[in-house]
Amino acid sequence: MAVLELVNISKHFGAIQAVTDVSLSLNRGEVVGLMGDNGAGKSTLVKMIAGNFRPSQGTMRLDGAEIVLHRPVEARQHGIEIVYQDLALCDNLTAAANVFLGREIRRGIGPLSILDYKAMYRRAGEIFKELKSETPPRDFVRQMSGGQRQAVAIARTMLSDAKIVLMDEPTAAISVRQVAEVLNLIRALRDRGIAVVLISHRMPDVFTVADRVIVMRRGRKVADKAIEQSSPEEVTGLITGAIEQV
User: Fold this and answer.
1) What's the pTM?
2) What residues does the ABC transporter domain cover (predicted)?
3) Which class is 4-88+161-240 in CATH?
4) Which residue, of 38, 84, 163, 227, has the fewest CB within 10 Å?
């Protein structure tokens, strides 16, 4: 059974039709590349999955049961996490403090409880090890590379037993070596049975790590193919409109 199904999902903002009649499914342990030009509807689609927007019409199912999300916190409660392009990290905090931000481990009782930094460092270190990342839990985020920052943002999603992680341009504006780090993080999520939706403009990244590619143009889904059955040339044609649909 698919972990997520969208059935005839549409979204309009007044007279603007951002997403039109999109259906797709997402399986456990699958990486899906979501591609399209600016304004194609990718971000709107992902924000509906993440609970930022309610669909104007259509149905969303999680593990076969229909769900209606009103807020992002409800999506997180259902195991849907999103890592935005800006990562929303606090540079003046350690990696571990960022991982546990808003979900800190405490020891003691009631008003006498204090933050258990040792437990947070230990657990954050375990998560980084699971992700095969060498990110030091005690280092401050401001000292970190782009790849390490992505590791911190992804580690945060693993505290809540995520079923689905939505990633918005995770390899934009970082070095080649750091891109390899991020792609390895995505593989680590997949190996844990987590479904990943990768929004990206970088064709090599999608064809390196994704199992399937979905292409959107003008708010509609124009392709949904296994990666080995497509090619960068075909996807480019679909994005630009040189190829209408496959």
Assistant:
1) 0.89
2) 4-243
3) alpha beta
4) 38
